[in-house]
Amino acid sequence: MEKFTGAAVQLPFDKINTIEGYKKILHYSIRKLKQKNVQLAVLPPYLFIFLQSLQWEQNLDFQQGFMYFAEQDTEYNNQLAKIHQEIARQYSIYLIPGTTIEKNRDGMFHSAWIISPQGDIISKQYQTHLAPWEQKLQLSRGKTLDPISLPFGRVGMLLSTDCWQPEAGRILSKMGGEIFIGLQGMQEKNNVWMQMSGLWQLVQHNKVCGIECCFDGMLLQTKLYGQSMLHIPRKQCQNKIGIVGRILSGSTGLVFGEFTQNKEHPSVYYAGYKQFSNLHI
Questions:
Q1: What global pTM score does this model have?
Q2: Torsion of CA 209, 164, 40, 238, to 10 degrees
Q3: 106 burial class (0-12, 13-18, 19+ CB within 10 angstroms)?
Q4: pLDDT at residue 266 is higher than 50
Q5: Could you tell me where the beta strands, DSSP code E, fall in the chain?
Q6: Helices 73-91 and 62-71 meet at what angle, rounded to 10?
Q7: Nearest alpha-carbon partner for 218 in 25, 12, 9
Q8: CA-to-CA distance for 29 and 10, rounded, in angstroms?
């Protein structure tokens, strides 16, 4: 990988009341990112559950909502996948449409997908580590971490608790992962230090670049927090922190960067960014 442009979208969940309203924001966001030559756009986790909940008549809590979604996961996933496949195809972009729940004979899984610029689902990743609160949702653990080779590098996805597992980063790195994607939303109130112990730490240990996209808002009567960020190894970062772009919790917008391989340090990437403070339609 010599050059790669990626982005995270931190959505204004409090302003999304219908699927059609979401589609307008999605078109706006991806159109803006394509103007900056973004190749891979990442949307927040739990997105499919949030979007489907907009159409539910009953007011469900976190666990009830997950279970209700899982009962009709095939229908819901097909409907929402089609929306994002059309977006990826229209704008010719690689798209990670957040996460969803998939149920099969092996269990119920928290899952993330990569959609190609042709609109095909070319990769799926199940969450491999479960916290106690996720076990209460009756989720099953995925068995493997599988980075995928894309034209700009090998991409590995880490879902929720996976972001805090050092072995997950080591596995992806040993399998050639160059770009780590973190998808998470914390129930701890705006705890930036806890977040920094997640994907940021994996990026530092494995000397890769990272895109962290967070659910920051209300989901099924539960407030989730997070800052969407771009990460690189701190020694190669001008501010020596390792964060080259972020959207604070409570804000919305797009953060994107061009990561370029440093010839003297072939596993290290620099990044530039520009942030939209709000999404206005």
A1: 0.94
A2: -30
A3: exposed
A4: no
A5: 3-10, 40-42, 94-96, 99-104, 107-115, 121-126, 148-150, 153-159, 179-184, 209-214, 217-219, 222-224, 228-231, 243-247, 253-262, 265-270, 273-275
A6: 90
A7: 12
A8: 10
Q: What is the pLDDT of residues 154-187, one digit of tens each?
A: 999 999 999 999 999 999 999 999 999 999 999 8
Amino acid occupying residue 187: Q
Higher pLDDT, 137 or 271: 137
CA distance 152 to 7: 14
The CA distance from 126 to 158, in Å, is 9
Tokens 């928290």: give the residue: 110
Model confidence at 262, pLDDT cuts 50, 70, 90, reads: low
- Which of 98, 92, 102 is CA-nearest to residue 10? 98
Classify domain 3-275 by CATH number: 3.60.110.10
- Confirm if 233 and 204 have CB atoms less than 8 A apart: yes
Beta-carbon contacts of 161 under 8 Å, excluding residues fewer than 6 positions away, are 127, 129, 130, 131, 134
Distance CA 8, CA 257 (A): 9
Can you give the residue ranges of every domain in the chain? 3-275
Q: Using an 8 Å Cβ cutoff, are 109 and 142 in contact?
A: yes
| Predicted local confidence at residue 244, as pLDDT | 87
